[in-house]
Please model this.
Amino acid sequence: MNRLFILIPVLNESGNIPGLVDALGSLAARLKNEFAVCILLVDDGSQDNTSQLAKQLAIESGIQLNVLRHETNRGPGKAFATGFRHLSSLVKDNDLVLTMEGDNTSRIELVQQMLVRLAEGFDVVFASPYTYGGKIINTSTYRIFLSSIANLFIKELLGIHGILTVSSFFRLYRVPALKKLQATYGPEIVERSGFECMVEMTMKMINLQITISEVPMVLDTHARVGKSRMKIAKTIRGYLNLWLLKRKWLQGIAFQGGDDLTRRSSRH
Model:
């Protein structure tokens, strides 16, 4: 049976773990005839009992869950990098990898729709609050405004077109797409340590002509226990750094990818 690996970075999420494990158990039950669901939690230096609680509840729920742990907080990008590196030796081409938030803001019922979109031939599917049918609710107008403006600004700054959400953690990947990224950028794929890591990954997918689709998602922060850990000013600085790194990544592809990619790099 093919496997669905679910990669989730977590930091002090003990309040969200019960809801998260319950949702993952429901997903595993729904997909049991299609996939063996394997969950990989990367604990990024939690100071509470996030890891222990997740392991305990997973055993009680009968789901397969493994935990990798950073002894100190290194940032979500480093958590994803650790997870991608770990999965590189486990996954096979027919497997899938789902990445998501650990704070219950990812609507796990969308996975079925994301699977349908993959079946249509796309390499990666994003869940997007910005595409038609998606929205953000139970969040202050100020934060919604900042999020929308930042999303638009980032795309213009980095020259990303045709994709409405570039920073979402909630994504479903075909393994060959991840292997293509790892062959070019290394087993960790992402370099940036902050929340901008998913924008970095989007840029790299576009550079490698990996096909991306989106499904609408209603982003509801009401289910989250605690506040978002994204620091707006720090994240904006991270996004600006991506612009400085863009040429480096393009040149890296030219080095790995031969004449055609060299010509494509020279046009940017």
